[in-house]
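Encode chain A's predicted structure.
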Amino acid sequence: MLGPDPADVNKVVLAYSGGLDTSVILTWLRETYDCDIVTYTADLGQGEELDPARAKALKMGVPEDQIVIDDVREEFVRDFVNPMFRANTIYEGEYLLGTSIARPLIAKRLVEVAAEHDADAISHGATGKGNDQVRFELGAYALSPEIKVIAPWRIWDLGGRETLLAYAAERDIPIDKTRGAKSPFSTDANLLHISYEGGPLENPWTEPPSEMWRWSVSPEAAPNEATYLDLTYRGGDIVAIDGREMTPAQVLTYLNEVGGANGIGRLDIVENRFVGMKSRGAYETPGGTIMLRAHRGIESITLDREAAHLKDELMPRYAKLIYNGFWWSPEREMLQAAIDTSQQFVNGEVRVKLFKGNVDVVGRKSDDSLFDEKIATFEEDGGTYDQYDAEGFIKLNALRLRNLARTRAERG
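Encoded structure for chain A:
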């Protein structure tokens, strides 16, 4: 069969949500591998109560000491989201990588839990069409080279939702029955964003329905008065809002609330997946959108020109590494070291104005500012800047251009 030899698998750590897919996977793993199961559920700030996942695992026969539920919200923002935003990271010019940046943390915890419970393998519910299978597994192999990975969607002969429901019914797997119509969208949420795929979004010409959005009001329905926030930066990270010190997760939670109330952070894109296909997705990233704009604002006065331009050149490569699942690669760590070095003097305050879906930087100040009003002024500068110096500067830069023009003229 495809996947690890059942003879080599005695215990598996399963990334578990308690939904249909992972409940079926839990039973399938037992039947296929005759193994013990440890369920792992991460609280990444998805806004859902996680106790039902524990109750569901218990109902499925998982011993209580084999059920692991982690609150990793602070670690997520501190060690993954913040480092990413120090680089002003966006993928393909638009996507703020909300799903991508959560996967390396989940992969890390899966292999750590496997080590703690003497498990031979980990398992996940990512399909063979998506990016997440790559992200989970590249992370797992980078951190635990000998770990075995079981990806049921690449192995079993089960198809879509109806096949899974039939499988669950045959084996008395408890499935929660929800009232009303089932949402046509596949969603994934964490403290950075919520994503929507599938259903009517599979036609890239179809506008997302207004009732789909969960975290934000529409810009049209946002307040008619602007909201102002003063964000305090230290080492490239926001550490306080309006003078109140906050933890990394508290910062992002607050920005999500205020941003969503002002219609900030909606996105509708077609992106290029690592596996080769194009995929249409919609995203809400209110806090992240504010963080990106504000960080560029504080860097504009604290970062040297060439350092800033070099960061902008490196950023697409850095974004691609995160999107494709290479967070734990040496090249990402090299880039991160360079980025973090650049943030030593990215300190100060940024004032942002939130209004009907827009984020504007309207003020910035820093004790480490490189902005010199005496030089930049259009008024008398007292001789600080000798404008005549520009003549030699221009002539030196024009030397090759003038030489090229003369040569071409001589050639006729």
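The mean pLDDT is 93.
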